[in-house]
């Protein structure tokens, strides 16, 4: 129903200094009345009269009753401007992201175009020490970089040697993965080292000294060693950067540490990851980068050998702690708190030893720590889970066919902490559990009751 009324008073709708408007009162008149059989709403409109010297105007001034509701799919008044602003902001953001990505791609192409390939081209032979899972994975990776290159794996187990040479697979660790045909296994050190351009050292840290002593006479003094082993020697507290040159009696033996988030199984499956090459010799680090970098393995370089090695050793101990939290079903909050505390402890010790704090937050630090602490493929985490579930350490180790470096490293960590006067409660608790001086439950209780201190 719509009803039109004429106003009983005069109203000036406009104000202008150059014009004058006459006002004359009028009576309310019913101008129009429209009856609807089924009205949805009623609307009353005021008609306002104003006049000049020549003309009189009637203008609709207001709708007294509310207008009809908008259709369901129509945006409310005022939303159009908001939509335009949002759309404009989205376009601007997308443009910024696109430009940033294009710059990154151009930078990447520029670096790739300048990258040298002469190291890979002139490398004819690589020797890999050890026939374990990671040594096998790296042998397969390097062999895939250049099919004309010979990759010799020096192993002690005749069965693994036979499996690799006859079936092109490591039957003990990767029975379902075919190795490149240019991977050859041998138990003879002289054969393995003769003519080698690089050596990948994948022997567990605790057995490295004795292994290297047995092959030292075949090692050329200029042969670069790329260490894949992570840990600290239990009695001497030595890192691999100390073990290799000292055992080979050559302080100038070229050395590189390789570390980062890299499970052997995923390397075998050619899944992408990134690692760090650490060496005091920048030219050597760049050479190893050329040798190893591929479509599925990104290699960065650093001179912080200490930071890379300490992080690689201590993350195994921290992974045992993370596994214990999982085995005790302490929850996600506990896991996050423990790993964060462990990362701080690793940083405290490594920086006291001369490492860069940025290394601990990088690939060989936080990257490797997250992988080892949170993923079930981790051997050290598995040890922790089983300890937290109530199994004894002896039973756990007897059932494993691979070495969990964190078990042996834990004791060395405490000795280092005392040497450098660093408090490491989480890693110390792991060492005490391994030495059977604390149960996992008791260790958690004692850690939770440590005095509150300011975070450093």
From TrEMBL:
Disordered: annotated span: 64-87
Keyword annotations: Chloroplast, Lipid biosynthesis, Lipid metabolism, NAD, Oxidoreductase, Phospholipid biosynthesis, Phospholipid metabolism, Plastid, Transit peptide
One biological process term in Gene Ontology: carbohydrate metabolic process
Subcellular location: Plastid, Chloroplast
Pathway(s) this gene product operates in, as recorded in its UniProt entry: Lipid metabolism; Membrane lipid metabolism; glycerophospholipid metabolism; Phospholipid metabolism
Domain Glycerol-3-phosphate dehydrogenase NAD-dependent C-terminal: 304-444
Annotated InterPro entries: 6-PGluconate_DH-like_C_sf (IPR008927), 6PGD_dom2 (IPR013328), G3P_DH_NAD-dep (IPR006168), G3P_DH_NAD-dep_C (IPR006109), G3P_DH_NAD-dep_N (IPR011128), NAD(P)-bd_dom_sf (IPR036291)
Any coiled-coil regions, as ranges: none
Family matches, as SUPFAM superfamilies: 6-phosphogluconate dehydrogenase C-terminal domain-like, NAD(P)-binding Rossmann-fold domains
One GO cellular component, as annotated: chloroplast
Pro residues: bias regions: 65-78
Domain annotation Glycerol-3-phosphate dehydrogenase NAD-dependent N-terminal: ranges: 125-284
Main location per the UniProt record: plastid
Catalyzed reactions per annotation: sn-glycerol 3-phosphate + NAD(+) = dihydroxyacetone phosphate + NADH + H(+)
Record GO terms (molecular function): glycerol-3-phosphate dehydrogenase (NAD+) activity; NAD binding
Enzyme Commission number(s) of this protein: 1.1.1.8
Keyword Repressor: no
Family: Belongs to the NAD-dependent glycerol-3-phosphate dehydrogenase family.
Family annotation (PANTHER family): GLYCEROL-3-PHOSPHATE DEHYDROGENASE, GLYCEROL-3-PHOSPHATE DEHYDROGENASE [NAD(+)] 2, CHLOROPLASTIC
Name the UniProt record assigns to this protein: Glycerol-3-phosphate dehydrogenase [NAD(+)]
Biological classification of the source: Eukaryota, Viridiplantae, Streptophyta, Embryophyta, Tracheophyta
């Amino acid at each position: 129903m719509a009803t039109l009324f004429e106003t009983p008073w005069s109203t000036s709708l406009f104000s202008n200094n150059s014009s004058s408007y006459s006002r004359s009162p009028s009576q309310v008149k019913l101008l129009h009345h429209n009856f609807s059989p089924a009205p949805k709403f009623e609307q009353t409109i005021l008609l306002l009269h104003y006049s000049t010297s020549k003309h009189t105007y009637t203008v609709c001034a207001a709708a007294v009753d509310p207008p009809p509701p908008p259709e369901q799919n129509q945006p409310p008044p005022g939303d159009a401007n908001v939509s335009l602003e949002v759309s404009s902001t989205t376009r601007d953001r997308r443009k910024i992201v696109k430009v940033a990505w294009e710059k990154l791609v151009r930078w990447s192409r520029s670096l790739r175009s300048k990258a040298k390939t002469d190291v890979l081209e002139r490398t004819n032979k690589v020797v890999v020490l050890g026939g374990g899972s990671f040594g096998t994975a790296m042998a397969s990776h390097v062999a895939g970089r250049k099919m004309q290159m010979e990759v010799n794996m020096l192993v002690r187990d005749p069965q693994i040697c036979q499996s690799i040479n006859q079936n092109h697979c490591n039957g003990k660790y990767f029975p379902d993965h075919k190795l490149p045909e240019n991977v050859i296994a041998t138990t003879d050190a002289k054969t393995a080292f003769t003519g080698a351009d690089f050596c990948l050292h994948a022997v567990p840290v605790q057995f490295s000294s004795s292994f290297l002593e047995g092959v030292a006479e075949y090692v050329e003094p200029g042969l670069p060693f790329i260490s894949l082993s992570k840990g600290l020697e239990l009695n001497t507290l030595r890192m691999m950067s100390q073990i290799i040159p000292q055992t080979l009696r050559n302080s100038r033996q070229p050395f590189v540490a390789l570390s980062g988030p890299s499970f052997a199984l995923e390397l075998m499956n050619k899944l992408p990851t990134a690692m760090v090459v650490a060496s005091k010799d920048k030219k050597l680090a760049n050479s190893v980068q050329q040798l190893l970098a591929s479509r599925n393995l990104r290699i960065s370089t650093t001179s912080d050998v200490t930071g890379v090695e300490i992080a690689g050793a201590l993350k195994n101990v921290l992974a045992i702690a993370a596994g214990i939290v999982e085995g005790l079903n302490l929850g996600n909050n506990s896991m996050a708190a423990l790993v964060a505390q462990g990362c701080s402890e690793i940083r405290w010790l490594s920086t006291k030893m001369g490492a860069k704090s940025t290394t601990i937050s990088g690939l060989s630090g936080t990257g490797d720590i997250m992988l080892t602490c949170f993923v079930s493929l981790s051997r050290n985490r598995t040890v922790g889970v089983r300890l937290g579930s109530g199994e004894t350490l002896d039973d756990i180790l007897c059932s494993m066919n691979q070495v969990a470096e964190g078990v042996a490293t834990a004791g060395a960590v405490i000795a280092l902490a005392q040497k450098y006067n660093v408090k490491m409660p989480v890693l110390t608790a792991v060492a005490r559990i391994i030495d059977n001086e604390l149960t996992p439950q008791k260790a958690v209780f004692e850690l939770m009751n440590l005095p509150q201190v300011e975070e450093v």
